[in-house]
Structure formats: structure tokens, C-alpha cells
Amino acid sequence: MTLLLLLPALALVLGVFLWPLLRYGWLSLQASSVLTGLVPMPNGGANWQRLLADARFWQDAAQTLRFAGLSLALELLLGLGLALLLHRPLPRRGLVRALVLLPWALPTTVMALGWRWILNDPFGPLNGLLQSLGLPAYGFLSQPASTWLFTVLADVWKTTPFVALLLLAGLQAIPSELEEALRLEGAGPWQRLRRLTLPLLAPYLLLTALFRLAQALGVFDLIQVLTGGGPASSTESLALYAYLNAMRFLDFGYAATLMLGMFALVLGLSALVLLTQALRRRLAEVTP
Amino acid sequence: MTTAGLHCEQLSRRVGDRLLLDGLNLSVAPGESLALLGPSGCGKTTTLRLLAGLDPVSGGRIRLDGQDVTHSPAGERQVAMVFQSYALYPHLSVLANLELGLEVRRVPAPERRQRIAEVLALLQLEGLERRRPAQLSGGQRQRVALARALLRQPRLMLLDEPMSNLDAQLRDQLRPELRALLHRAGHPVIHVTHDQQEAMGLADRIAVLESGVLQQVGTPQELYHRPANLFVARFLGRPGINLLAGEAGVQLGIRPEQLRLVESGGLPARLLRREWQGSQQLLWLDTSRGELLLLAEASLSPGEQLQVSWRPEDELRFSSASGERLA
Fold it and tell me: CB of A285 within 8 Å of any CB in chain B?
């Protein structure tokens, strides 16, 4: 009976998670490309050896981490600020909250196309602004050193409202008497934030961070539309590289290996975040 | 008029076009304990929040020890409050709960430790310092909240339904303890309750509120024996006061325990039903002047024909029109 009730959930997990994972594992041990006529043929660990020596994989891994790290930091910071703002009694609060959520409700492709136009050199509005100030036009999307910053900008613009929404839910779960009690004790807004709100919000911050980390490490659509991974692969993410291998180079064996490499990265980082959290809690318990 | 203690004049609170509190005048002396009593929505919690500075005042003045604090921020009033939920910081141990306010007010560490040790001893909380609020019983939580409030060294102590989260037995046990403790601490105390037993047990004086308007302030005895109006008469006392028609324009009130069963010469009555209450029985009587409640020790059965009487001086006389008590 128990098994029967578990069956739908079990089927879902096995079907959409475990089965593809196993299939990837198997595929990563095959040569399966145009050279083999797309017929999988076992090639030992050749794909994995190639991965370890692949400079582009490591460069993309570094770029993906860089993108995810900065996006996450900015989104948490701005999202927290926005959530605190939205938590205050505002006139027309429902309307304001709906408006704030708009960027997140926009499909990524549409949003990325918009940003591509805003950042266009020399015809985009941003360059129009620069030129009206007497400054030269700037190639926002053609500088290998700085273009990644604008992919982060677009991601932050889109995802901050989502982070703010999750944190707002956390703020609303904190009973208002706690803040009032601390106010009566003479604590100012900054002290209340640091000593009460942030510690109580910590589980929500952690959850949001994990959520966003996994999403940002797998970033694909935004980069594909905004920069196509360029200039000179300087904004290419791991997901984009895996996609190129599968869909452009038709090397499915290696693409599967790349996906698994990415999966390991996400898993490892998430575990690390959870571990530090568990450690922190353990420490808080032994110290008064 | 002395300046020490709390004085409110014409204190009002309006939200939109709703008047939650209408011109409250109230004084509480140091060491005195006052209960704000009334049904829910009567304005008692509103009053508490205005005094604490958690909500803005719409009119009137609040003075504490001679200082006008009507518009002072909550943190600068030196007012402590025990919340109904106790509002202990859930992420902090008992010790850290007590220490946080002192740290915020920059009390030096040695003094912090000493003062915390004092309240821990006073409230018998020693040994619980490391516990989180979730690991405490209801009574222990209340004591921690009280300890935290005492550490504030308040000029005014506010308690919002301090007993409502405790079971009846614990309430009876804690009421005298809390009363003694608050008396010793020596600041003016206001506590809000909808429970008359709690108000009578904890407070020196009771202020009865209804619809944002103060009905009467006085000692529990005054309120019980000389209620200002029908509302106060009906609100205090359990079982409730008997009301019967008097001469034109007058309503009579008579407490159930002041009715007597007599052999002859009384008002004829028929016993409708009874409720056993331990030492006494509560009787419902049907008479020509309406239904009456009576407390008696006699053992009677429903349907019996009886006669009731009372002393004229025990009658409370109210104006039918205004509800005010007539002299």
C-alpha cells in the first residue's frame, strides 16, 4: 500500500532524474559523434580524459563560477534590500509588489533581446545616453574583459525580484512583536536588522542562495541570446559549451561528459554551502 | 498633583474614521498596578501600544515621571512590555535573550553579567541559561519575558494578557507571585486583560474600557459594589448580576449571592434548573419580574416553588435610559 502511494512520485524521480543521469553516464563512456555515424561505441574513459585536459572546459567552468558568484552576491544583496522595502507598510502595496515582479515574469529570451538592444553599439539607448553626454560610444558586448559584467547585469535585473519575493515571504514569517520588543529595548533599525532580522532570515537566505546558485551555474538562454558566448568565448558558460558540442559538433558522447562535469560542480558547491551552514549551526550550539 | 508615575490626558487614537481610543485620562503611581479590563476591541491593547510608543498618538498627552513622552520613539521611553506571546527571540538562548537589550544599550559587560545574575535568581531561572525559548515551558517563558522587561529598568511596565497562554492551575499559582514581584519592583504597572479574575488578582485598581471609552476606574471592591453604570455592573462578577425592572425608568441590579431563599413574604419563584458548583449550587429561577440567578447551599430539585428576597440596601439602581447608576 505504502509503495503504491509512493509510486507516482517515485516514477517521476526515476523517469526525469535518475534515468537521464544514468543514460548520461553510459553515453559519457561512448564515442557517439558524426565520426561514428552517431552510433554509440564504447571508448573507455576517452571522453573523461579529454575533459580533464580540455582548457576550454576549465575556462568555461571558471567563467560560469564567476558569473554565478557575482550574480548571486548582487541578487541577494539587492533582493534583501528590496524585500525589506516591500515589507514596510506602503500605499498600494499589492500593486507595488506586482510591478516589482514584472522583470521576473518576462521570458528570458525576450528580456535578453531587450538588453541586447539597450547595449547595442552604437545605436542602443545606453550609447545614445553616453553620446548625448559627449562621451564616445562603448562596445558593451564586444569587450572580452568586461562583457561578462553585462551578462551579470541582465541576470541581476531579471532575477532580483524573484529573490526579493522569496525573502519577503521569510520576513513575513517573523512575528512583528519580536521587532517591537527589540525596539522597546532601544535598538535602532540597523541593530534590529543585524541582531534579529538577519539571523531569523538565515534559512530563507540559504534556500534562496542554493536555488539561485544551481540556476546560475546552469545559465544558458540569457547568454545564448545576449552574447552567444562571445566575444571570443569570454562569456561562454558550461551549459553553452555542452550545447555546442551536442548540437553543433554533434559529439553526443563528449556533450554528455560535459553535462556530468557541470552536474558534479553544482552538486559539490551546493553540498559545500549546506555543509558550512550545518557547521555554523553546530558552532552556535556549543557557544552560548 | 505629583509628577512621578504615569499620567495620560485625553489620550486618543484614530485610524481612518474609526476612533479606537477616545480621550483617556489615567494616572498610575509608582509601585501601583492597574488593570485595563474590557471585552476584545474595547481599546485596551490600543492603549498599551500608545503608551509603549509602538503606535502614534492621535491626540492628548502622555507624561512619565514628569517628562512629556507623547511623541518620543519607543526605544527612548524606558518602557518595558511583556507581550502576550512573550516575544522571546527564538534564535537566542535565555541568557542571550536577556543580554541583547543590555548590549544594545551599551551596558558594560561586568555590569551586564551582574544584573542578569540578579534577575535570574529573582525569577528562579538559574540553570536554564543555555536553553532556547522553544525548550521552555509556558511558565518559564513568561518568567524569561518578565526578566527581560525588568532588566530594562523601566519607568513603566506594560503587560499584555500575561496569563492567557498559561493553563488555569498555573495561572492561580503565578498570580500572587507576579503581584508581589511587581510591587517590589516599584514601577507603575499596567496590564491588559479580558479576564476579571486576573484583573482582580493582579491589580490595585481596575480601569474598565468599552468601545474606546473609559467607563470607570477604581479598586476591585469599588467596581464590584458601586459600578458606575450597567456595563461595569454586568462585566464584573460571575455569575453575572441579576437585572430586573424597578419603578418607571429604573433598572435594579442585584448580585446572585445577595439573593436569599426565604420561607414566606418573598417574591414567588419556580426553580428552572440548577448547576452544581462544588460548595454551592447555582439556581435559575423564574419569577414574575424576570429570570433570576441565585447561589444557594440548599439541595433543591427543578420545579420546586420557592420564595426569594433581598435587602433593599443591596439593590443597585440604574437609569434605564442612560445606564448610569443612580445615587
Answer: no
